[in-house]
Here is the input.
Amino acid sequence: MSRARGGKPLLQVPESDGPASGLRWHAATVVAGYGVASGQGEASPYPEGTIALQAPLFAARGLDLSGVFPGTLNLSFVDSRWQLSQPDASFEQLCWTDRHPPETFSFWRVGLRWRGRATPLGGLLYWPHPETKRRHHHSPDRLEVLAPWIPELSRCQDLELGVDPRRCRRVQPLRLQAQLLEALKFRVLASQQDFFLGFGIAAEPGSSLHPDQLHRVQRWLTSVLPAALDLRDDELAAVMQRAWTLYCDRPFGSNRDSVNPAAGLP
Here is the structure.
């Protein structure tokens, strides 16, 4: 698969979908990686570098990486994780080393820009699937990018990564939890514990919600704060528990006549 969706070269910066740009740009910080992709790490078991070892196998399957530096650019995004879908290229169960079982890799076309550069630089988001990766795992806030060599990288200011927001979504859990808690505040203050009854929650939520309760909360979020659907189940339960603790100050059932925003949910 040498060409991306719509027949565009994979290393071409994604085109604009609107009057400004189809990309969503995110401030990024370049951080040190393990030195495994390039083979420059002292403890790397792959002196040639993993990219150099994998590139011929990708090429045999249609993905030409000859235009990129054989190492990854490690980018950090504070308090974030990423939800990735619909890659431009994907290769399942690639057997590229005898040191561990085959891995699955996916790629997305991205752009890089920084102060002083007139046009974005095309690159590829390189994603070894965590479920098939045995070692050298990165924290959820990190992404690896393949790009042509950037001589001035150490001097780049205001580096940003541009992604298709429909397929590469940045999730900021702390911000989402704060937004959800604020959305719950006046609803819970008005209805107290009765607010939670619409979700089937009759006692203070714990660290997890019953699947049926979770489903009802997610149905409610669809119309109130859809972005909060990106929260994990445990993060969502934590916000519900926090809202109960902060805003419920009357005995259970003392405000039966108040309006319940969650009423009518299945």
